[in-house]
Structure formats: structure tokens, C-alpha cells
Amino acid sequence: MTDQIKNKGSVTLVLFSGEMDKAIAAFVIATAAASMGMSVNIFFTFWGLNVIKKEGGLIKGQNWMQKMLNMMNYGHAKKLALSKMNMAGMGPMMLKVMMSEKKVPSLKEFIKTASELGVKFYPCEMSMSVMGLRQEDFLDECEDVIGAVSYLAIAKTSEVNLFI
Amino acid sequence: MSEYAINKTLDARGLSCPMPSVKTALALEKMSLGEVLEVLTDDPVSKKDLPVWAQSTGNELLGIKEEEKTIKIYLKKA
Asked: For an engineered disulfide with B18, which of A32, A48, B71, B75 has Cβ 3.0 to 4.6 Å away?
């Protein structure tokens, strides 16, 4: 939010997991905190990077191992597995229907809302270089790519820190 | 009619946690100081969450009314 007041606290989340259910949990907390005027940062690392990947581009990376990993790990906000009861993709499909019946936003909508509320998304530099990913592979809503030290500098000043 | 002079009504019925708080924050952001927002919700959690939201954002909770399934929450921007 634009008229955010700093003393309302801050929340820093590490999203390590790349599953839809865990990502939604992270975004529920992020949007709720942002609505309370808190400043919210999400540090996306490892599998969590899938949540903020752009759609398309199956083959990414510089060498065959990275290319294979990115092919097998293909995913974006609309295409993520569940951490339980994935049932070869049936689980996420059914959960999406159940969520929309209860008017729970989809992950894509959560990302948009969070970004409008001023939640900051930081992709992790180290995971990106291991997987051979570039900044242009990620959504435009993302801030700079940062490393562990920059994450810690933000986390150190946050009252709420979660690793999901 | 309501006992409060309402400047804006937000219909958040059908939405579930955390969207009523998010929509409230966005609606109140566009309003001026002292104006009153009426939030309509049917999410039972909002009855607990929105007062907490108001307290932590420094806005004033004027009151809560329940009419059948609809919960009406009155907030004053401070």
C-alpha cells in the first residue's frame, strides 16, 4: 500500500516449497499482513521459484542437467502439484474447483492482489544459478534477485519470519 | 437505515479469509479521514478478524450488526 506506515511491522516469508497448497498458505498470510499495513517480503528459493515463473519455456538452462531439471520441474502459478493427494494432477484440479466454489482466490489472483498491496517478491540468486534460470524467466512483479545476506538483512528487521 | 452516516459500502459477501480484510484495506485506502465504511460479509471469521484488523491498523470500529447471514461491520477511517 502506498500510505504504508513503517511502524506497523513487517513479515518476511521464505517460500522454499513449490506446491500449490503451501504457496497459497504463504499468500494468505502475505495478503492478510499487507492488508494490516505491514510491509511484506517473500523470498522465493529452490522449488518455490516455480510459483513466480512465467508460463511457457519448457527448456531452460545452459547444460543438459539444468535443461533436464527444468523440464521435469516445469511449473508456474497455474500449474503446481499438491504436497498431499496430488493423484497425478487430479488433486490440484479438484482443489481449484473446491476453492472457487468457496470464492477463495486462485494462486494467480493471490499473486496479483499481493503485488497490488505492495508485497515484495525476491527470487533467490543461488537457486537461480544452480537451475540455470534468469530474471526474465520470472514474473515482472518481482523485485531484484537477492542473496542470502540480503534476505537476512530484511529478516533481521521483521517481527514475523516464516519458512514455508 | 443505519445509525451511522455511511460514506461507502463494501459488499464482501461470498468472500472468504483473508479477502474481506484485503478488500476493506483497499476500500479504506481510497477514503478520507473520518469517513465511514460499511462492510457486508457472510464470513463468520470476519466478525473476529475485522475488529483485530481495525485495531492493528489504527482505524476505529464503530459497531457490528448481524442481519440473518449478513454481518455488517462499520469502520471509521482514522
From this structure: A32
